[in-house]
Specification:
The structure holds 2 protein chains of 2 kinds.
Chain A lengths: L15 H8 L5 H4 L3 E5 L5 H11 L2 E5 L17 E2 L11 H11 L6 H21 L24 E2 L5 H18 L3 E4 L2 E9 L2 E9 L5 E5 L2 E4 L20 H8 L4 E2 L4 E7 L22 E5 L16 E2 L1 H5 L9 H13 L11 E4 L1 H7 L1 H19 L8 E10 L2 E2 L12 E3 L17 H21 L13 H20 L5 H15 L6 H21 L11 H25 L23 H4 L1 E6 L8 E6 L14
Parallel strand pairs in A: 1-2, 1-9, 2-5, 9-17
Antiparallel strand pairs in A: 3-4, 6-7, 7-8, 10-16, 10-18, 11-15, 12-13, 12-14, 14-15, 18-19
Helix pairs in contact in A: 3-6, 3-12, 4-5, 5-12, 10-11, 14-15, 14-16, 15-16
Chain B lengths: L2 E7 L8 E7 L8 H14 L22 E2 L2 E2 L21 E5 L8 E3 L2 E2 L2 H8 L21 H11 L6 H5 L6 H12 L2 H4 L2 H14 L10 H5 L7 H15 L4
Parallel strand pairs in B: 1-5
Antiparallel strand pairs in B: 1-2, 3-4, 3-5, 6-7
Helix pairs in contact in B: 2-7, 3-5, 5-7, 5-9, 7-9
Classes of the chains: A alpha+beta, B alpha+beta.
């Protein structure tokens, strides 16, 4: 069990991070110049990490699969970014933000990491504002805030419904500044194929140049993965269609433990599936629940125009079930409540798999102009896709796969179980427990990138200043490259009949049906068998046209989907192992009479960290027991 | 619906490209334009043909990856949308749709409909930032910004870097792209310290990379999926002029 030491510093919770920084090992400016760091991914965690490490003096190599780092999918985050500034004087504090996250995560996150995330949140807002991120402001010129789900204070900073874009572009601009200074070398249009481990330490990566097809070897003193989540395992999700879990998966197969893989956030307010061709589900920001009211008709199968249904015939089910938080309950609660209404036959729209999100009352009370100021671009986005105006008719929404709380297991240093391999942002498992609160992903990602990793990595690198980097001709690099090329050629040689997309879609359906919003033992076991069969069919019958040494988008997709089959099985195994319900992980066998999630703290108050044992062997479970010394573990109630 | 397509096919940056015609049956009006291309590619793969390479990612109009020249307009003729937000309901049964990559010296074609927009990254590196290291920032509320300025800065900052402005311009000018960034930072106190250097350097880099000059036709504004206003170009011109006439630093 020695391997699973979370390395949480001693001392009172509020002092841990300061004491850590005071005691950590440093690398002198002169030595930083001699150290190389690879950062994979350029989202809200990766771009700031690469920029900040370069500012500190390290030599950074930054990688992304897009044509430019500015397109990383953090760009699509809409609603906002949290901080404990207490600018509203409404009783907010670092402790309260920490407490909300621990409770929101249903007591399945590590106290010390969550407290630190809350602690650095204020500095992020300062940093972004100084970069010229145009956050919303009040008429007096001060910064504006709004409220998000699962909390009772206003601590969310925002830039209309494009906060992710603005926050990401801040990080991107910092990155571009370092590229100009020659401290960051940018490698865009690269797909990471493998991690290279030499003498037990992460020393590099193997990539494919997506334009020339060339396979490349890159060496460094440390490797940072900021590669995001794996929500596209459901095929339809709010993620970019090329988002994937492959980098984390390759790390897992090289020895990094995977934490809580089955913890996936299903976002309650997304544009529903409209047809069979659909390739993507668009998110409608949680911020809309500040003013929008969610309801379904009280009568089953009521096909009237929603505007013709009078109030007394509407079931505002969130306000009814959760009077204290109403429409602003956390995402997992809101998503399950929508599913419950639809499964019971009250759903609306063509498919019956949708509920209304209605702005009628808000428009009446505040006027169209005010509502437009708050949500104008979201309303436009909705209208572009559906052809209906939310000012006139209620939106129709339904839950969709969104964010993965699970990810690579990391210790307090954000280092995985492979020395020298770090994971930050959504790619790690660390801060959100079993459910993430809105506007805390940008916060955690940016916190990791700007303020946490740049400190903790020096603690590791201080012992590496005398290390001579291995040559890229070292056997480990040769082996990793050969294995990667062999795998790519294997795809090209199958020459079957079915497309990658058709397999991805079928895998997504299995995961959505059996390992989505609700899970049970029978379904999960069935899913394992189905995934296995589909995986075999894939390797027998997939068809990948084209060659290795050219732009080949089907080949890129194939290796991602091949990894998803393996990851899907780990997710299902993790969901099977955890027989309790907690946060987004809802085991039907473990619920209260009122249908709420029922935790089983005496058995499952741990992080499930899985170790790869080989393709044909079941993964090994390691448990990181969670200790709560600063909050009282309670039944999570929003009633 | 049945749709006829004329698609630009080009094997790589050195090869000579040409239009190839395809017919696609069973197009649903509810499909997005990219989902229609997905369907075409599924068909081509099954017929042992090379699928059409095109760039796309978020499919919700914010990442800026997709950019197709559709029937002579960047992102298709429509109001403030990226290609991924265009839906087949705007076309009719039997329509012929011509699809080309961005055409500009600054954006060489890599394959089929994919172009290299790396030039935008280079322009950004020339000055599209505020020089502040992590950890140096004062409290965010210590500098007040009038709401109107913050709102205008946001409108400029909404640029998604897709390159439609360049593709729409008869001179292949990147002025709207550069103006959006210069404006955003010129409107905010945080960007003032480097405003002069930023305007001069970004414009110089744009010229160096072979983008043409602006002749104020307004085509860029008309085709911008985010509705970035050419007022920003006027602001860039003011910034540039005042920087040119000021004392060298």
């Amino acid at each position: 069990m020695n391997k699973l030491d979370a390395k949480i510093p001693e001392g009172p919770l509020a002092e841990k991070w300061n004491q850590y920084k005071a005691a950590m090992k440093l690398v002198s400016p002169n030595n930083k110049k001699k150290l190389d760091i690879i950062v994979v991914g350029t989202g809200i965690s990766g771009a700031p990490a690469a920029a900040t490490l370069a500012e500190l003096g390290y030599n950074v190599k930054s990688f992304c699969y897009q044509d430019t780092p500015r397109r990383a999918h953090s760009v699509a985050a809409q609603g906002g970014i949290n901080a404990a500034k207490n600018y509203k004087n409404d009783g907010d504090s670092v402790y309260r933000l920490f407490y909300d996250m621990i409770k929101g995560g249903d007591y399945r996150a590590r106290e010390a990491n969550v407290y630190r995330a809350a602690e650095v949140s204020n500095a992020i807002i300062d940093q972004l504002t100084a970069q010229g991120v145009p956050f919303a402001r009040e008429y007096g010129g001060t910064l504006a805030n709004r409220t998000f789900g699962g909390v009772q204070v206003s601590r969310t900073f925002y830039a209309q419904g494009q906060t992710g874009q603005q926050v990401l572009l801040g990080g991107y601009s910092a990155l571009k500044r370092q590229v100009a200074k020659g401290k960051v070398k940018m490698f865009s249009r690269r797909q990471m194929l493998d991690i290279v481990v030499v003498d037990g330490k992460a020393r590099g990566i193997i990539t494919r140049n997506l334009v020339t097809g060339e396979i490349e070897r890159h060496v460094a003193h440390a490797v940072v993965l900021a590669t995001g989540g794996y929500g596209t395992i459901y095929y339809l999700s709010t993620l970019a269609v090329n988002s994937n879990g492959s980098a984390a998966w390759q790390a897992y197969k090289k020895g990094a433990f995977f934490g809580n893989p089955s913890f996936v956030q299903i976002h309650p307010t997304c544009i529903p599936v409209l047809n069979e061709y659909q390739s993507k589900l668009t998110l409608m920001s949680e911020s809309l629940r500040n003013d929008g009211r969610i309801w379904v008709p009280k009568a089953k199968g009521d096909k009237r125009n929603p505007n013709d249904i009078p109030d007394e015939e509407r079931d505002y089910y969130l306000e009814r079930r959760y009077p204290a938080f109403g429409n602003l309950v956390p995402r997992d609660v809101a998503a399950r409540a929508a599913k419950e209404r639809c499964d019971s036959g009250y759903g609306v729209g063509k498919t019956g798999l949708a509920v209304y999100l209605d702005f009628r009352d808000a428009v009446q009370k505040q006027g169209k102009k005010v509502i437009k100021g708050k949500y104008g671009n979201l309303f436009e986005l909705y209208e572009k896709i559906t052809g209906e105006s939310p000012y006139e008719t209620p939106m129709m929404i339904y839950p969709a796969g969104h964010y993965t709380m699970g990810g690579l297991w990391v210790d307090y240093n954000l280092m995985t179980t492979i020395p020298g391999l770090f994971a930050i942002g959504e790619a790690n498992f660390s801060d959100h427990g079993a459910n993430r609160l809105g506007a805390s992903s940008l916060m955690q990602g940016a916190g990791d990138g700007y303020f946490i990793l740049p400190n903790t990595i020096s603690n590791y690198l201080a012992d590496e200043i005398r290390t001579k980097l291995p040559s890229t001709d070292a056997q480990e690099f040769v082996d990793a490259e050969n294995a990667a090329v062999e795998r790519l050629n294997k795809f090209l040689n199958i020459n079957g009949k079915q497309t990658v997309k058709s397999f991805h879609k079928r895998l997504g359906n299995i995961m959505w049906d059996y390992c989505g919003m609700k899970r049970n033992e029978e379904g999960l076991k069935k899913a394992l068998k189905m995934i296995d069969d589909l995986q075999k069919e894939f390797w027998r019958d997939v068809k990948i046209p084209g060659k290795l040494d050219e732009i080949n988008q089907e080949l890129e997709k194939a290796s991602r989907v091949a990894d998803f089959f393996e990851l899907a099985k780990l997710m299902v195994n993790d969901a099977l192992n955890r027989k309790e319900s907690c946060g987004a992980h809802f085991r039907e066998e473990s619920q209260t009479e009122g249908g709420e999630a029922q935790r089983i703290d005496d058995q499952y108050s741990y992080v499930a960290a899985w170790e790869y044992q080989g393709d044909d062997k079941p993964p090994k479970l390691h448990k990181e027991m969670l200790k709560f010394e600063n909050v009282e573990v309670k039944v999570r109630s929003y009633k | 619906m049945k749709i006829k397509l004329r698609v630009w096919r080009q094997e790589n940056s050195k090869a000579k490209g040409k239009f190839v015609k395809y017919e696609l049956d069973g197009v649903d009006p509810e499909m997005s334009f990219l989902e229609m291309l997905d369907a075409l590619n599924e068909k081509l793969i099954k017929e042992d043909k090379d699928p059409v390479a095109f760039e796309n990612d978020c499919r919700e109009g914010i990442c800026g990856s997709c950019g197709l020249y559709i029937n002579g307009y960047p992102h298709g003729k429509g109001n403030k949308i990226a290609t991924c937000q265009l839906h087949m309901r705007v076309f009719k049964d039997g329509d012929t749709i011509t699809i080309e990559p961005w055409r500009s010296q600054g954006f060489p074609v890599l394959k089929d409909l994919i172009v290299d927009r790396n030039a935008f990254d280079k322009i950004m590196s020339a000055g599209g930032f505020v020089s502040i290291d992590a950890g140096q920032a004062p409290d965010a509320n210590s500098i007040w910004v009038p709401k109107e300025n913050a709102d205008k800065a946001f409108d400029a900052a909404a640029c998604i870097g897709c390159g439609a402005c360049v593709a729409a311009c008869k001179n292949s000018s990147a002025m709207l792209f550069v103006a959006a960034k210069v404006s955003q930072l010129a409107l905010l106190p945080q960007g003032k310290a480097e405003a002069k250097r930023r305007a001069l350097n970004m414009v110089a880099k744009m010229d160096e990379l072979g983008f043409g000059s602006c002749t104020n036709t307004g085509a860029c504004e008309a085709e911008c999926p985010k509705g970035i206003s050419i007022e920003n170009i006027a602001r860039l011109n003011r910034e540039y002029l005042s920087a040119s006439f000021s004392e060298p630093e």
